[in-house]
Specification:
By secondary structure, the chain is mostly helical. It contains 5 helices and no strands. The relative contact order is 0.09.
Length: about 130
């Protein structure tokens, strides 16, 4: 195994499980927080609003919608901000539920079943074409 301190961040994440990384971020944030308890949970969830605002700012900047600023962001900036939203939401979920991995997996399966149909259901065959005269 390599020394993680020498690896690039993407390489460290590739070696780790996504939820292990979320657990480490959660632990780091808890060790460095200014507020705990319900207030800490509230602030951690409210952090999502801040991150979503940064997505909006990047979108406005990428499309040049602010005439005073022009095009101030790239689409890569928008993607990075969206990633920050996902990470922040995962850490908030981990703060709320120690079994966040299982909670998320079950919820994702439920959303997929509701939207795509059960994973075990066979994909219906297309209807046969009507005979041509």
């Amino acid at each position: 195994m390599t020394d993680h301190a020498e690896d690039a961040p993407a390489e460290r994440i590739a070696e780790d499980d996504l939820w292990d990384t979320i657990d480490r971020l959660h632990t780091w944030l808890d060790a460095n927080r200014a507020h705990g308890g319900r207030e800490g949970l509230l602030l951690r969830v409210l952090k999502l609003s801040e991150e979503v605002g940064e997505v909006a700012q990047a979108m406005i900047g990428a499309t040049g919608q602010n005439p005073r600023k022009g095009v101030s962001h790239t689409w890569d900036d928008v993607g990075s901000e969206l990633c920050d939203v996902v990470i922040t939401a995962m850490v908030a979920l981990r703060t709320l539920a120690p079994d966040a991995r299982e909670v998320f997996t079950a919820h994702l399966a439920s959303v997929a079943d509701r939207s795509l149909g059960p994973a075990t259901a066979p994909v219906p065959a297309p209807a046969p074409a009507p005979p041509t005269p």
